[in-house]
Amino acid sequence: MAARGRERRRRALERHERRESRRVRQRSRRRFRRYFFGAIVGFAGVIIVLSLVIPGSLGQVGITSDSSAEQGIQVAIQGNEVVEPDQPHPAYSTSPPTSGWRYDIPLEEIDWGTRDEEVPNEEQVSYLERGAIMVQYNCPEEECPGLVDNLEMVVNRYPEGVVLAPYSGMDEQIALTAWGRIDTFELFNDPRIDDFIQAYIGQGPSAFRQE
Predict the structure, then answer these.
(1) Chain centroid to CA 76: how far?
(2) Most Cβ neighbours (<10 Å): which of 26, 37, 121, 147?
(3) Rounded to the nearest 10 degrees, how much is the dihedral formed by the CA atoms of 115, 151, 175, 90?
(4) CB–CB of 118/137 below 8 Å?
(5) How far apart are CA 105 and CA 103, in angstroms?
(6) pLDDT digits (tens, 9 = 90+) for 105-163
(7) Residue 72 CA to its chain's centroid (Å)
(8) How far, in Å, are 36, 57, 112, 131, 167 from residue 164 at the CA level?
(9) Which portions of the chain are predicted below pLDDT 70?
């Protein structure tokens, strides 16, 4: 009798231990799922925040409003040598050029405003030498609708000292050049262009205005 009682107690204790073991395992699994899904949610939140912050910090937005004369890069002056049309000379250090070999264009032959065709590098440098600003673009109208109109809107604020023209020999969509200074970027940015013009117009070795 006593032996049967001890056997029942042993079996009851074993059942209790098994139930307790199952409860421990279940609690562990629940804790693991909570931590696992919490980590997933947290990681997704970080990804969302980074996707919003990083593109803005890299400037990859449509039409931006960064004020930016300082974003232009200063380039070492290559000289100020006059050459004749078709005369060979060393390569320019930037594309478009910012200094170097130029044509000798009389002041009365300078033509401000919008050009429909590309301006030869040597003619560009002649303008820059007089303190002018070149605003150039490399994008067909069908790929960049409205770009030329937007650029003209900025350039037309300046009756003299600024030239707008296409230029196929550059990687970026837009290039701003002054004597010894260049700024290139992809997306139209009115303040960036206007600030560059105001900062560097008239800063060449000679003047485009008659004294």
Answers:
(1) 23
(2) 121
(3) 10
(4) no
(5) 6
(6) 998 899 999 999 999 999 999 999 999 999 999 998 788 889 999 999 999 999 999 99
(7) 12
(8) 58, 29, 8, 15, 10
(9) 1-70, 210-211
